[in-house]
């Protein structure tokens, strides 16, 4: 729903309505990259409003983030035991967000975070089967039979795991790096599968959730998902 820019600037805490008018007249406000004029309106759900080149955050705005979670952080917003949690890594986000799904304390990599409950439920729901890609370092190595077992399913906690994809990326004496793609979200699934096969997980890193990739995002940092990535994730959850 569209509102006058003066009102939106005031809601964002950028200025009073009277001061906002001055900012617009000075050419310091832009909507979707174009200088705004006094009297212009914008839809905060669709339009990007910037002041002096910095995007404004409006109350109630939906946030969608990709976070590179380091090892040693728990995927919670607070922890009774005083452990480091992902909330500390998104403390500078202008709004409260929470994790979509989980990534255990000893694992690292891509974690999606949002304040959109419907989006989180669609992506994380067990029936959505959004693919999650991991780079896993195994010891002492892996053989073809073990790869087939990971791919076809392994009995864990009295239930077979869903079919997955597994391929060797590197193989050296005493270690192997394997890419594993999961389509279900059972707790510590990769670690439990590997343990059942007598393999030690030396390192586990999630590199993608559906079409969203970790790429070169530094550890402990976050970035906003693009509108295209959000749409693609929702599409993947319904496929």
Can you give keywords for this protein?
four-stranded antiparallel beta sheet, nine-stranded mixed beta sheet, alpha+beta, 239 residues, single chain
Can you characterise this structure?
- The protein contains six helices and 17 strands.
- The chain has 239 residues and is α+β, with helices and mostly antiparallel strands.
- The strands form four sheets. Strands 7, 8, 9, 10, 13, 14, 15, 16 and 17 form a nine-stranded mixed beta sheet that branches.
- Strand 15 and strand 16 form a beta hairpin.
- Helix 1 (5-11) packs across helix 2 and helix 3 (117-124) crosses helix 6 (227-238).
Distance between the termini: 30 Å
The helix-and-strand class reads alpha+beta
Query: Percent range for helical residues?
Result: 10-25%
Shape: elongated
The overall pLDDT average reads 91
Beta-strand residue percentage: 25-35%
In DSSP terms, counting alpha (H) and pi (I) runs of 4 or more, how many helices? 6
Give the ordered list of helices and strands: EHHEEEEEEEEHEHEEEEHEEEH
DSSP summary, beta strand count: 17
User: Main beta sheet, described?
Assistant: 9 strands, mixed
As residue ranges, the low-confidence spans are none
Task: State Rg.
Answer: 22 Å
Quaternary organisation of the protein chains: single chain
